[in-house]
What does this fold into?
Amino acid sequence: MADGLTIRRAGLDDASTLAKLNQQLLDDENSRFQPGIGALATRLAGWISGQEWSVDMFDNAQGELVGYLVHGRRFNQAAPGGDEMYIRQFVIDRAHRRNGHGRGAIALFLETRCVPGMRVMLDVLETNPAGQAFWSEIGFAPYATIMELTAPRASDIAPSDTSSDQ
Ligand SMILES: CC(C)(COP(=O)(O)OP(=O)(O)OC[C@H]1O[C@@H](n2cnc3c(N)ncnc32)[C@H](O)[C@@H]1OP(=O)(O)O)[C@@H](O)C(=O)NCCC(=O)NCCS
It folds into this structure.
């Protein structure tokens, strides 16, 4: 079980380790975004050293890294007090899944990083039904649906008949 889980802020030295977990996240949610491990490590290092995002790591009772979470506070006029927490990334290492660590890590995150009563938001891809099942199971509810369409390219449009003859 998730007893003994601890949370700590990531340091710059952790970026390459976390990049491997970021790759698991992208693969497991069937993401179209696949920039490669090097670019993921660079992006994580930027988040760790910057002001906009915070990166937290979760260790089990044996001191093994089991997952990480990237989050940031943002303005939203629909949120209580106009301030909400946004979870940008969350992943539990494949080797440690279905042991309650996901549930335990989010409980620890809510307890240590969120203000009581705060709204917590995240996006979950349609290509990630396991992620959707996890978030629903621990109490998150759908709020909005993001929809997409690709505008026709010139090559998709059949040449039109420009003559006025019928
Ligand atoms: C989603 C994820 C974080 C769950 O982590 P976890 O440690 O395995 O989750 P838990 O063990 O705490 O699971 C809690 C409950 O969530 C549900 N759940 C977890 N994984 C599930 C899955 N693959 N399919 C269906 N339900 C799942 C179950 O109800 C589970 O309870 P149970 O094991 O008693 O049945 C992990 O699978 C993961 O990192 N996936 C890839 C990254 C990802 O999708 N992140 C979220 C992006 S929005």
